[in-house]
Amino acid sequence: MNKDTVxxxxxERIAFLLDKDVxxxxxxxxxxxxxxxxIAFVDLLVFxxxxxxxxxxxxxxxxxxxxxxxxxxxxxxxxx
Length: 80
Description:
Low-confidence stretches: none
Radius of gyration: 11 Å
Number of strands: 0
Helix content: 55-70%
Number of domains: 1
Structural class: mainly alpha
CATH topology: Non-ribosomal Peptide Synthetase Peptidyl Carrier Protein, Chain A
Shape: globular
CATH class: Mainly Alpha
Largest sheet: none
């Protein structure tokens, strides 16, 4: 799995959660600025666990990894 594939999957999920077109989701924009509320963020975390077979509790993901989709995708690729 490569970073670009992960970014596209994350963009599609976030676009779905925000009811926006995927083309409006930037991989450089901080996640907290995208408009995800706490419920949507938890949904995104569950999606990450299931989609990428990644146990978040033991993955080592931290707040910095969620600064952008680029950073998050890079971390997911390294962890899988």
